[in-house]
Amino acid sequence: VNGRELRCKVVGEGGNLGMTQLGRVEYALGGGRINTDSIDNSGGVHSSDREVNIKIPLNGLMQAGSLTRDKRDPLLARMTDDLAGAVLYDSYVQSLAISLLEKDAPARLGEHADLIRLLERDGLITRAVEYLPDDEAMTERRTRGKGLTRPELAILVSWSKISLFDAMLKSEVPDDAFFVRDLLAYFPGELVKKYREALANHRLRREIVATVLSNAVVNRMGIAFAHRFAEDHGIPRADVIKAYAMAHEAFDADRYWSAIQALDNQVPAALQFKLFGRAIGLIKHATTWLINAKYTQRPIGDVITRFKKPIAEIETLIPDILPPSYRTAWDKAVESMEKDGTPPKLARQLAGTMVIGSAPDIIDLSREAKVPLAEAAGVYFGIGDRLRVLWLLSSVIGLTVQSAWQALARSNLRDDTYRLHRLIASRILQTPGKSAEERIDNWVKAHEARLKFGVQRLQELHVSTPVDFMVLAVGVRELRKLSQL
User: Fold this and answer.
1) Is the per-residue pLDDT at 402 higher than 80?
2) CB within 8 A of 140, min separation 6: which ones?
3) Alpha-carbon separation of residue 418 from 142, 308, 311 (angstroms)
4) What span, in angstroms and rounded, lies between the C-alpha atoms of 374 and 387?
5) What is the Cα–Cα distance from 395 to 397, expressed in whole angstroms?
6) DSSP annotation of 222
7) Residue 43: C-alpha distances to residues 17, 86, 90, 130, 157 (Å)
8) Could you tell me if 287 and 217 are in contact, meaning their C-beta atoms sit under 8 angstroms apart?
9) Is 403 a residue whose pLDDT tops 90?
10) pTM over 0.85
11) Full 3-state SS string of 44-81
């Protein structure tokens, strides 16, 4: 039976090769819902991996005479439910990752094509062997407004993880002391409680850490995130993963994932995907910031100590500290999410992602100027309000791109906007004043003529249509001029 002949809506493969990959793709292109056999049967392989990784240290303890089989076997039996829960959760997150990729597949076809070429260049895949579309087929998909199908995305999820796993093992990143926590979290709680030292010294500890991190990055941030950033900025992929781990912990990202996942079967999946997009956007920005600020050269623990607590403090100031344009955008975001069915607490939390990403800049500004966080935040958001920075950033982020070069240009424009915003805020914090508002007023008065022209130009750009790359480039140029005052 060929894929196009199936009249069912969903196919789940309970065994290997229930369908060929060509059959899966044909069925998916016709609207059928299907993964691959490796995705549908991932639990079995995953269970075996965890079982082996548990038995390695326990067998070592048995050989050393500190554990008997009579004690080991009941312990293994008691861990069955914990192990099953971990395997099912990992499978759940992986399936969710494919759904998120599928949602944006047509818009990200160029990005996915670049990833395929990169994996080919690295010698990891052969397109024909994996039944991935060639360039001609990609062009046809683009013309028809279609992206890669779930079975094709599932193949790329697997190879993306393998690629990042290999990159991690070739680096020193898995050796960072911070990841002992992730290593121990991989094992059931009872095992950690009784044999913590043996697990911490696991002979496959680097491989386990690399697996956990490569899975996390691909599942949460997408198949091309780490590869594309590394290619665009000429840095090792392992550094991108390290920065992601820093960002994830500093912003306590699990609270976003967990709260959105808890809405399963309570709200439409389409809404959950939109909410995930807000959290993903925040962590992407934070990862980028940490890399640009060269924090990947430091131990992860030091970075967490520097940022995590102050980020939480700044979050308590939101939304009360936000000036008009920021507060209006925050209110609209909350209203929109609640109208769609998002619980009020989560809506407020996610609305904050559009401004809390600036927290690292505010924290550094506070330390440099030796002022309280609230004052640094007041200056940062206050001058952003006057210079229409929120509009400029939102417009840059909203630019539609169709190639890697356009995406890089958009990224550079966004990074420049953040950098110039911070530089202007730094200049204002050097201006005398007893409050954030007074410092801003004094700086404005000191440069009134030049600011008048710059603000007017930004206002003109704000109302211009269409808002394209050239319009926004002019806006960023005006910010650059003001940052030099």
Assistant:
1) no
2) none
3) 33, 20, 17
4) 20
5) 5
6) -
7) 16, 10, 9, 22, 16
8) no
9) no
10) yes
11) HHHHHHHHHHHHHHHHHHHHCCCCCHHHHHHHHHHCHH
- Chain centroid, CA 398 distance in Å: 17
Output the six-digit token pair for 438: 């007074």
* Residues 283 and 251: beta-carbon distance below 8 Å: yes
Report residue 280's pLDDT band, with 50, 70 and 90 as the boundaries.
Answer: very high
In 318-447, which ranges are continuous DSSP H helix? 324-340, 344-351, 353-356, 359-369, 373-386, 389-397, 404-429, 436-446
94/154 Cα distance (integer angstroms): 9
For the chain, give the number of residues. Answer: 485
| 203 within 8 A of 92, measured Cβ to Cβ | no
Can you say whether the dihedral through the CA atoms of 176, 241, 390, 423 is positive or negative?
positive
Phi, then psi, of 10 in degrees rounded to 5 = -135, 140
- Distance between CA atoms of 457 and 38, rounded to whole angstroms? 56
In eight-state DSSP terms, residue 357 is: T
Q: Between helices 69-78 and 42-63, what is the axis angle to 10°?
A: 150
Tell me: pLDDT of 447 over 80.
yes
Query: Do residues 405 and 416 lie in contact, with contact meaning Cβ atoms separated by under 8 Å?
Result: no
Q: Which structure tokens are listed for 242?
A: 């390290």
**148 CB-side CA count, 13 A:** 28
Q: How far apart (Å, rounded) are the C-alpha atoms in residues 476 and 272?
A: 33
As given in the structure block, the two tokens for residue 166 are 């290999």
Distance between CA 283 and CA 212 in Å, rounded?
A: 18
Amino acid at site 110: G
Rounded-to-10 torsion of CA 473, 103, 249, 353: 50
Please tell me whether the peptide bond between 174 and the residue prior to it is cis, using omega within 30 degrees of 0: no
Q: Compute the distance between CA of residue 22 and CA of residue 13 in angstroms, rounded to an integer.
A: 15
Band (pLDDT 50/70/90 cuts) for residue 463 is confident
Place of tokens 């906007």: 417
What amino acid occupies position 300? I
Residue 358, classed as helix, strand or coil, is: coil
Structural contact between residues 299 and 287, judged by C-beta atoms closer than 8 angstroms: no
Sorted by sequence, the CB contacts under 8 Å of residue 328 that are 6+ apart come out as none
**Which tokens is 208 given?**
């386990």
